[in-house]
Amino acid sequence: LKGTDKDVRTIGRELGVGHVLEGSVRKAGNNLRITAQLIDARTDDHLWADKYSGTMDDVFDLQDQVSREIVKALDVTLTRDEDRRLADRPIVDPRAFELYIQARQEIRRYGNAVDRGMRLLAQAMDIEGETAPLQALLGLAKVNQVRSGTSLGMTPLEEAEQIGQHLMASADGAHYGHAVLGMTAHTRGNMATAVFHFRLALEHDPTDADLWFHMGIALNAAGQDADAQETGRRFLEHDPLGTLALVLAGVLPWFVGRAADGIPYLERMLESDPQSVIGRWCLGYAFTLLDRWDEAASQATWMQLHAEGMPYTGQLSAMVEAHRGNMDVARGWLEGITGLDYHHKFHVAESFAMVGDTEAALTWLEESVDSGFTPYHYIVDHCPFLAPLRDHVRFAPIAAKAREAMETFAPGASY
Predict the structure, then answer these.
(1) CA distance 235 to 247
(2) Which has more confidence, 163 or 75?
(3) Averaged over 152-181, what is the pLDDT?
């Protein structure tokens, strides 16, 4: 909301909060100057204000001072766990922390941005060492290489799993280990194992956006619509302007037949981060569900320019060309696609259905279900692109497997 002309009461209503913190941070060389004021969003009363000066070397101390002054002004008592999290400094060097934040943003964007994020992360490790949060982010990067389809095969998942197991054995890294193992299990299609790990990790850090996001899409992929919707609601409540929260809020409506409900969230997400490859694909796919093909084509063109060679780019481009009737061009976008995760396989199945290759579409759909993608009601009722497949003799057994997996879903560990 930087630069907004909205008043504090409007901001409070939109974000669902009782208090708003305003302020500024000015940096000159190594020197910092921070101003902050706490405002009651319901009455517009100023409850507290102060100024702080220091250097970048003091930035975590300044952060702690401001946070505790806010706690005092709100007249709240922290739990022991909240107090611990407030004082926790898992990354000690300010420059390493800055690199960590930059790396995380790139890794969350998918595509070639993941490689840029890994280079930033390597710089952070050179400064800070291979501490638990940096290793955990490396695990997420490995997972997102597979989820982006930019890796050759599943080797990065094996490397991520090794990182997760190493963190599980670390005294201060077990919750990071649960996070990485959960994301690895999710990408392998082991949704019950993934949700088990995510819940344990969230007990330690209920503010971790990556955990909320991956748990939401894992529940969604498992066909647990009610739990996925509740996860998305709670995530958005915690982080109403966060890019991952907005993506999840934009995606979940697809699976209950309300794709239009998600468009505002996806558009808001891209306003804040127009370079997000996964955000572009999500919005483009949402437009296809709504028969808004010119807008879908616009997102496909952006991806062709900025994410060339990424399977998501080929899949969305194939759908656009098939809709235009350019079947040979559409098939060209699908050539050579192999070794993908459950999510890619499903959307490739849609593309083959659109170009009229029913057998290939059913094969990819079955591989997707066998790989852990079992949102039964989306497959059977809501996805418009699977309509040509539903009367085929092979479709009912595939749908039955999805239904069984959905109905027998029970979170638990396999490690």
Answers:
(1) 11
(2) 163
(3) 90
Bridge partners for 54 per DSSP = 32
Q: What is the pLDDT of residues 212-237, one digit of tens each?
A: 999 999 999 999 999 999 999 999 98
Separation CA 33–CA 37 (nearest Å): 14
User: What mean pLDDT comes out for the span 90-99?
Assistant: 92
- Asked if 319 contacts 350 with a C-beta cutoff of 8 angstroms, the reply is yes
Strand partners, 36: 23, 50
Distances (CA, A) of 288 to 32, 261, 277: 48, 14, 17
DSSP assignment letter at 130 = S
Strand (E) or helix (H) holding 172: none
pLDDT > 90? residue 251: yes
pTM of the shown model: 0.89
Burial readout 316-337 (b: 16 or more C-beta within 10 A, e: otherwise): bbbbbbbeeeeeeebbebbeeb
Are 222 and 406 a contacting pair, CB within 8 Å?
Answer: yes
Q: CA–CA distance from 23 to each of 64, 65, 192 (Å)?
A: 15, 14, 43
How far is the CA of 334 from the CAs of 47, 309, 356, 382, in angstroms? 59, 11, 13, 24
Separation between Cα atoms, residue 181 and residue 273, nearest integer Å: 28
Q: 35 pairs with which residues across the strands?
A: 24, 51
